[in-house]
Amino acid sequence: MPTRTKFVFLMHPHEHKRVKANTGRLTHLCLRDSELHIGIGFDDHEAVQALINDPRNFPVLLYPGRDAADLSAGRQDSPELAALRVQAESRRLVVFLLDATWRKVRPMLRLSLSLQRLPRIMFSGAAPSRYVIKRQPEPGCLSTLEATHELLVALDRSGLEVYAQPEQLLGLFQRMQDFQIQRTAENAGRGDRRAGRRMPAGDAAGLTAVTVKRRRIFSAAVAG
Question: Is residue 195 domain-resident?
């Protein structure tokens, strides 16, 4: 899929080595102008630093918070979005995404001062996660693929991107999950007890409630 925006996925080694349903890698393969780099700290990463320091680029970090420019519809006249448009007119927008669980994202950002200094963008009012084979820690959390989709929607509405086929990413996401569900059912039918434990039936049907026992990831305003 061609895009005006360049996407750079910074993947935690845990995602690379241990997680089979890796939506970050799937998203990277779907986007023509994207890169994927594996690590925890990126201040000494040659390719990442080259993208950040290239004067032809306008690098930003997708990370929610009060200091992030909200690209969602209804806030298109914000000063932050106006400044982003000005920069994007003369330079290529490069979006960095941290691909890890929220527990691991914070250390990644803490170890990368160059990423901390980047302007931050976000979206709000996103659809609930469509992830049925993996629990999200709380409402408002999305997979990397879903976050990229929602960002592309927001960029398109803001006039910064042309997202002509929004169903493409979500369709692949659903097909990936259908495949995982099918394989889990086949393994369970052959008596593989471990397969049954990986994805409880309630989770596969999207029926299991998520109980949050730790500090909220998003404030109510950010979760949308």
Answer: no
C-alpha closest to that of 141 among 223, 82, 78, 69:
223
The residue range of the domain holding 66 is: 6-169+208-223
Global pTM?
Answer: 0.74
d(CA 103, CA 214): 11
CA distance 1 to 82: 27
Count Cβ atoms below 10 Å from residue 48 Cβ, excluding itself: 21
> 39-53 pLDDT, tens per residue?
999 999 999 999 999
Total domains in the fold of the chain: 1
Of the CA atoms within 13 Å of residue 102, those in its CB half-sphere come to: 16
Which sign, positive or negative, has the C-alpha torsion 75, 53, 1, 37?
Answer: negative
What is the per-residue pLDDT for 184? 63
Structural domain contains residue 175: no
- Triad 52, 123, 23: Cα angle to 5°: 70
In a domain, 198, yes or no: no
CB-based burial of residue 143 (10 Å sphere; 0-12 exposed, 13-18 middle, 19+ buried)? buried
